[in-house]
Design a protein that fits this description.
Helices cover 22% and strands 27% of the residues. The chain is of the alpha+beta class and 85 residues long. It has a 4-stranded antiparallel beta sheet, with helices on one face.
Length: 85
Amino acid sequence: MSHSTPLPAHPPLRSDVTLIEVGDDAVGLAVREGTGYRFFSAVASLNALDSQLFASLKELRRAAAKTHRAGRARVGVMPRQSLAA
């Protein structure tokens, strides 16, 4: 005869990871670390912020938006050329 052991009660799950988006772009993850958030970049334009610790998600999002916009502006967009010769 086997006895089943009840599963231990678990506290409610809480997420320590937050997806960071700039506009429609998912640009990285913020992981709670102590009282702040460590950022892990998912795009090259934010590699300068990778692994940095921020005091708040608001501060992190502001830095990500500013850096992402600056990175995209540096890349620039090539003008379309006419197919007609």
